[in-house]
Amino acid sequence: MFPLAIFIGGPTASHKTEIAFDLQSKFPSFIVNSDSMQVYDQLEILTNKPIKKFQKKHECNLFSYIKYPKKCNVGSWQKKALSIIKNKKNKIPIFVGGTGLYIDSIINNISEVPKISSKVKERVATLLKNFGINYLYKELEKIDEEYSKKLSPNDTQRIVRALEVNLSTETNFSEWYKIERSQVFKKIIYIVVKTEREKLYSRINQRCEKMIDLGVLDEVKQFLQIKQNLEHPIHKSIGLRQIIRYLEGINSLEETKLDFMQETRRYAKRQLTWFNNRAKEAIHIEGSKIKQYVLKELKL
Predict the structure, then answer these.
(1) Cα–Cα distances in Å, from 76 out to 85, 103, 157, 209?
(2) Fewest CB atoms within 10 Å of the CB: 122, 208, 247, 293?
């Protein structure tokens, strides 16, 4: 068991990373990226990674460490994160990101479920192909109503995964999260950045504009020149679909910006819902008050 960790979660554009960087400069610590898109070595602008100079300055870990088209999941990320902590025992880890499941896997020590056999994967894939995602969602409702309520009926990746787990282990996905496990840290400081919705949406709009200015259109164009795996998680990056439609000549630049902003706002809303419903250990604090709160908790 490790002594202490700090977790900073919240929606996109809530200034989580800036807050984490500010904290990291105040005491011996290091940053652990907890964003499922920022682990990949592609789409630096679109996934809003901090620039390399700041990553180095603030001792950042687990940014861009997965080479596309390799994939990352919560279990492999958790394993990598824990190995980093073991090698930095004299410093406090600061986990920062908007992927609640990644943070949850560390706080509650949720291990990766057993590997799924190719036979089970093929079986579920065949059901998806023949009957569609609505059918699979209804099947999930029958066998694991609790977990199905947490998912969108269109969340193909998680619905498929839940069914695979059930068929492979005869244990519902929701039950995996209830199994008692030893805690990783003696003490945690878990903060969700609290932001007024109007202010958050304004920041989102500004960020989308800034990404256009920084060259995200060219970045996506270059990414598409790589041999694509359309089933890869990075293809769910917010804004990618909208920019591809622009590059294909389907939408104008103005339409693309508006769609990009809207999709990002929807994503932020989903993140807020997740952290409000699932982050039971967290305290919600306005960004300007977080540093003071943490330093007080650390008695610095």
Answers:
(1) 15, 13, 17, 34
(2) 122
